[in-house]
Amino acid sequence: MNTDDLIRTLSRDVPRVPRRVLARRLAIGMAGGGIVTMILVTAILGIRPDLRVAMHGFSFWMKWTYTLSLGVGAIFAVSRLARPTPVSLRWLWLLAVPVLLLAGIGIGELVDTPSRDWLAMWLGGSWKVCPWLVLTLAMPIFVGLLWSFRRMAPTRLRAAGAAAGLAAGAWAATIYCLHCPEVSALFVLTWYSLGIVLAAGVGALIGPKLMRW
Question: What is the dihedral of CA 99, 100, 101, 107, to 10 degrees?
Fold first, then answer.
């Protein structure tokens, strides 16, 4: 049997893969993990009582814009890395754009704030727990993304794990905004980002072990 005949024989009874199956599976994994994270925030941490008022202010949307932009970029990277085909990740430098924009806002805060108040503005009232809460809240979303990967064929396992952790951390931080009362861009840039980076690091560390196929 020549090669062409062999390929035709092997592919004869292969079922057609539905369109958008990858997007649907990622959406299910993200939604499942996000629901668990939302339950944890509402049941354990609690929604900030002034949320309705806060949503009319700049600081709330500043935080959400930052975390959402990172989350969208990271989930796009996840969707690319879930496929076995070679992909270029050069475009990931675009994730630096929201970081730089937030840093610019933070510099503006420093200019408008007396230097004696800089430390308090940077640390806020929850700097010791914020990164760890973001990391903890990211775990259900990360598990949901790992579930999504079980039917896929990633080949760059460490990169895929890091991207999944980054996405989980960013979306967990987005949900955490519903609880967090901090208003400083410097706080968000430092402590939110640290939690997101920790989640990406965990993903890079354990992703190759859990995504192996």
Answer: 110
CA 86 to chain centroid: 22
Give CA–CA dist 197/131, Å, rounded. Answer: 9
Q: Judge whether 38 and 171 are in contact, CB under 8 Å.
A: no
Answer with the residue of higher pLDDT: 35 or 92. Answer: 35
Domain boundaries, the chain: 20-210
This prediction has a pTM of 0.87
82 contacts 152 by C-beta, under 8 angstroms: yes
Q: Are 114 and 2 in contact (CB under 8 A)?
A: no
Buried b (16+ CB within 10 A) or exposed e, 53-66: ebeeeebbebbeeb
Using CA atoms, how far apart are residues 77 and 25, in angstroms rounded to an integer?
15
